[in-house]
Amino acid sequence: MTDELVAQPPQSATWLVHLDRSMWVGGVRGLMLQALHPRAMLGVWQNSTFQEDPLGRLQRTADFVERVTFGSPEEAEEIGRRVRAVHRSMRIRDPETGRAHRVDDPELLLWVHCAEVSSYLEVARRGGVRLTEREADRYLAEQRRSAAYVGLHPEDVPGTCAEMEAYFKRMRPLLRVTPEAASTVRFLMWPRLPRHLRMLAPVKPVWFPFGALCYYTLPDWARRLYGALPEVPAAAVTAALKAFRLSVNALPEPVHERAFMPATRQMLHAARQRLGAAGYDVSRGLRGLTDPRRRPRAAV
After folding, report:
1. 263 to each of 83, 237, 253, how far by Cα in Å?
2. Which of 117, 213, 217, 283 could bridge 143 with an S-S bond, Cβ 3.0-4.6 Å?
3. ER-bound oxygenase mpaB/mpaB'/Rubber oxygenase catalytic domain: from which residue to which, for each copy (predicted)?
4. Does residue 262 sit within a domain?
5. Residues 241-267 as b or e (16 or more Cβ within 10 Å = b)
6. Full-model pTM
7. What CA–CA distance (Å, rounded) separates 174 from 153?
8. Is 294 inside a domain boundary?
C-alpha cells in the first residue's frame, strides 16, 4: 500500500537511515570521500557553485535524497529526470589533455553514488542506529533504486556491504588528493560564507567542530591520503558522533525541517498527509513510523 504513496515504504531500511539526523554528517563525509576521485572532483569544481553557496549545495543534495525516499513515486521520477537532464548538459575538461568528458559517465555516477550511500550507512551505524547486517545489506539493495534515478543500471551497483567493500578496494588505486580535493576538504571544514549569509559569521566557529567530525568519520585510508588534521582516537570520534546524533535527533521534526529548502518541506508535509489519509498515525511525524514496535498498520 505504501509503495503507491512514497518512493520507499516506512518498513524499509532506508527509512531507518534517512530519518536519522546523522545524515548531515554522512552527507558532508560523502562529499569529502567523493573528492578523492580526480575526475569526479573536476566535475564538481568546474560545474558547481558550492564554494559560493555551500549550504545550497547541501540543501539540494538533501532535497534529492528526501524526494527519492519520502516523495511520491511521481516526485521521485520527476527529480530523477531533472538530475539526468542536468548531468547530460555538463562536461568535464581535463586540463592536462584538453579532452572533454561527460559528467554522466557511469563510472563517475557510480563513484558518487557509492561514496554517498556508504557514508550515510556507515555514519548512521557508528552513531548508534541499530541495523543488523541483513538490514545494512537491505539498505544498499534499496539504494539501487536511487542509483537508477540518476541513470545507473541497478545491477551494476553494489547491493550488499561485501559488494560495497569490494568496490572501494578496486577503486582505491585510482584515488588521490588533487589540489582541488585538498581545497574542498579545507572548505568543508571551514567554509567561506556567501554574501547573503554574512550575518551568520558570529556563529561560524561552531561549524569547524562539525566539519572536523565529518572528516574524522572518513575511512582510515582516506584520512591518510588527506592528512588534513592530526589523528585522534577512534573512540573519541565515535563518542562525539553519538553525542551529535542524540542532540540533533532530539529536535522536533518541524524544527529540524527548517534546514531544508521550502519545496522539500512542502514535499514532506504532503507525504505525512498521504500516509495519514491511508490510516497511518503520523502524530509523531515520519520518524514515528520507523519503530516496528510502535508503527501502526495502515487501515485496510
Report:
1. 16, 34, 16
2. 117
3. 15-241
4. yes
5. beebbeebbeeeeeebbebbeeebbeb
6. 0.91
7. 22
8. no
- Residue pLDDT, tens place only, 192-231: 655 555 545 555 567 789 999 999 999 999 999 999 999 9
- What's the grid cell of residue 207? 561549524
What's the sign of the alpha-carbon dihedral 34, 190, 62, 117? Answer: positive
Coil, helix or strand at residue 118: helix
Please name the residues in contact with 245: beta carbons below 8 A apart, sequence gap of 6 or more: 20, 21, 22, 25, 127, 128
In-domain check, residue 280: yes
Residues 58 and 43: their CA atoms lie apart, in Å, by: 17
Report the candidate in 253, 25, 272, 271 with the shortest Cα–Cα distance to residue 129: 25
Query: Is the residue at 180 inside a domain?
Result: yes
d(CA 257, CA 269): 10
DSSP string for 122-137: HHHHHHT----HHHHH
